[in-house]
Every structure is written in C-alpha cells, then in structure tokens.
Amino acid sequence: MRPGAAVTAATGPVLDLKRWKFSTLEGMDDTDTARGTGSEGLSIQQVARRTGLSQPTLRYYEQIGLIDPVDRDPSSGHRRYYPRAVERIESLAHLRAAGLPIEDMRTLMRSRGHRPETIQTKLELLTAHRDTVASEIAALTTRRSYLDNRIAYWQAVLAGDDTSATRLTEEGQTLGDQLH
Q1: Whole-prediction pTM value?
Q2: Which residues are 48's β-sheet partners?
Q3: CA-CA-CA-CA torsion for 41, 45, 49, 54, nearest 10 degrees?
Q4: Looking at the chain, which runs of residues are DSSP E strands?
Q5: Most exposed of 94, 96, 114, 139 (fewest Cβ within 10 Å)?
Q6: What are the distances in angstroms from CA 133 to CA 83, 98, 107, 129, 139?
Q7: 3-state SS class at 68
Q8: Which domains does the chain have, with CATH numbers?
Q9: Which are the contacts of 84, defined by CB distance < 8 A and separation ≥ 6?
C-alpha cells in the first residue's frame, strides 16, 4: 500500500494527503538536469517506497514512456532515479491516486511547462476528470441511499412497523429506479 494511504472497510483505499511523503528529494541534488551531480540517485526500491508505486509499475511507466529512460548504475546495471525523475514519478503517483487513466496521465506529462496552450490542455483534462469523479460520486450516493432504504425497510419489518415498511417500500421503488 502507498505511504499515506489508509484503508477503511466501507470505502477501500483512501489517500491521506497529510501523511503523504512529499519530502522524497531530501538528501538528493536539486539541479536543473535530470541527473543530479554528486548524488547517486535512488534505487527502484527506494522510489517505490517513497511514491507508493510498485516496482513493476515503475518499470511499466518507463516502458510506455510516462517517464524518461532511467539511468543505470554502470557497475551493477541497476536503475538510478535522480531528482527530476523522482518529481515526475511523484506527479504520476498523485494523478494515479486521483484516478486518472494512463492515457490522460500521458497527455498531462506531454503538456509540460506553463505556456498558455499547455495550461489549457491541463485545465481541460483535469476539469473533465473532475466532472467524471463528480458523476461517480453522485452514482455512489444514490447506491448508498438505496442501501440505507433497504436496511431501514428490513429493520421496520423486524420491528413489526408496517406503516414505515410500506413507506420505505415506496421510497425504495423510486430509489431503485434511479439506480439504472
């Protein structure tokens, strides 16, 4: 599980931004180049621990071009991740946690910089995803309302409260129609 993630029985994984490790670059060079001078970079295990992305996911992101090819240690051949790569991977981890599909992450990663056209692309993509999330939340809220209704119905039946059971049956019909 990624650092900062908590699990609740009702909702599954939840990103806890208060616990998320943003200090991943501590002790690494912060130069303008992809490879910091004087730093040995981080291993794939260290990056996986710091970002919450699995090692296979990091390799996959490199394979499909979401992250640039990763430098290798000349003596061992192991991947070494330098500050700019780690920053990009952190951004990808956040986008993934927000539920963006890989193709949308790819579009965002290609839209680097602060030029008006790249900002517009980012705004459009993130706004569209936010709208999708809002629709998903509305659908989940309807599902929960239906389930709450069914629970209340069966509690009324168990208690012998026919008046409430009848009312809840009618409300349940309306809620059930909203599920489709």
Answers
A1: 0.69
A2: none
A3: 120
A4: 5-8, 12-15, 71-72, 79-80
A5: 114
A6: 31, 9, 18, 6, 10
A7: coil
A8: 5-100 (1.10.1660.10), 111-180 (no CATH)
A9: 33, 34
CB atoms under 10 Å from CB of 179, counted, come to 10
Find out whether 53 and 93 touch, Cβ atoms under 8 Å.
Answer: yes
Q: How many helices (H) and strands (E) does the chain have?
A: 6, 4
Half-sphere exposure of 31 (CA within 13 A, CB side): 10
Query: Average pLDDT per run of 10 along the chain, which is 180 residues long?
Result: 44 44 39 46 96 96 94 93 94 95 93 90 96 97 97 98 97 93
Closest CA to 94 of 136, 52, 125, 48: 52
Q: Which pLDDT score is estimated for 112?
A: 84
- What's the rounded Cα separation, in Å, for the pair 68 and 146? 47
